[in-house]
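Suppose you are handed only these lines of text.
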Amino acid sequence: MPQAFTRDVVVVGGCGHVGLPLAIVLADRGLRVTAYDIDAAAAARIAAGSMPFDEPGAQPLLERTLASGALAVTTDPASVSTAEHVVVVIGTPVDEHLNPDPQAVPRAVEALMDRLRDGQLLVLRSTIYPGVTRLVEQAVARAGARVDVCFCPERIAEGRAIEELSSLPQIVAARDERVTERAARLFGTIARDIVRTSPEEAELAKLFTNTWRYIKFAAANQLYTIANDFGVDFERVRAAITHDYPRAADMPGAGFAAGPCLFKDTMQLAAFNNNQFTLGHASMLVNEGLPLYLVSRLERRHDLSSMSVGILGMAFKAESDDTRSSLAYKLKRILRYKAREVLCADANVRTDEGLVAEEELVRRADLVVIGAPHRRYAALPLRQPVVDVWNVRGQGVVV
Ligand SMILES: NC(=O)c1ccc[n+]([C@@H]2O[C@H](COP(=O)([O-])OP(=O)(O)OC[C@H]3O[C@@H](n4cnc5c(N)ncnc54)[C@H](O)[C@@H]3O)[C@@H](O)[C@H]2O)c1
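From them, the structure of the protein bound to nicotinamide-adenine-dinucleotide can be written out as follows.
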């Protein structure tokens, strides 16, 4: 019989963008949840009742679950021994040469091996390189731990985590039915629908989910450059195509396809496929190339070397405060080389001391490029030319 646990769930990486919303929502459903993390500053802030990043709807739930004791936050790895379910959702970035690290999650699990207890369910939730579930199963077996292992990928989008944790179907994957049903019971407390697969199917399902989206954005961005080079407003073409035409309803607008997931997961899949991923690599060229394309177009009309250029919005997407892998920063690097001065502003972002106030940017910039399509930019009075590839201002996107 499993030993009696004092907590239901411990989330390893529980102060992160994915771990914290999950911990909060599980706690809000009445489970006793511990968010365990190595980031002491984030843990202290969360324990004091403050979200370390923007996530709509999370703040009141955090306060409520902390106050009731349903949620606890700690940097003590001993917490891993206390819960029946151990959910691992640490970061799995690619390195500066775009190599994934298939050992990231196995290493974290190995480091906690002494803390694992018989009868626990170990849930891998990070986006992992295909085959990593098997590696973790083998490591657990080698250590002689009587712990069940499953992979239940997270598919929420930042900014919608609280709503999507319960509205999205949850993929649960394990080697046998008993463990699958155990994982299904855990996620059945929050998700409306459970999809059962094998671990390998789930590993590909998660990477395909993000890669599919990345390729769609690249397709739109390349069509944007074709229209733009022809002097035609892509948004008007898109509006014509999608008007009452369901087969094209999912055509995205143009814009920077960035952030901590889509690009790196496309590169994980490419590496997994021996770097034979034509569509994935082509998508990278288009999406990562968009800032340089915009600057090269701007150089045709403007003498950038004599201009102050403002980038309005530095987060990787609308309404976010997250700047991880934001292409607005790539744009900034290119413009710093080309323009007399580059001013960057984003009232959402609190992690960059190099930003200026929005008013200063608006006052001083000769040209403004929208770097993130925050809604408030739609009505912001701007006297200078504006490059708005996202069409947030609804005035066309020709550059
Ligand atoms: N951000 C998203 O929108 C999103 C969506 C779906 C899936 N994912 C995947 O979820 C995973 C986590 O992403 P994230 O954006 O939350 O990353 P994050 O960097 O915001 O959070 C990861 C957390 O793990 C902690 N951590 C790292 N190593 C640890 C260890 N050994 N023990 C305890 N804590 C540790 C970090 O301190 C951090 O707080 C990644 O695999 C990512 O691809 C992310």
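What can we learn from it? The pocket of nicotinamide-adenine-dinucleotide is lined by residues 12-13, 15-19, 36-39, 42, 89-92, 108, 126-127, 154-158, 260-261 (CB under 6 Å). The first helix runs from residue 19 to 28.
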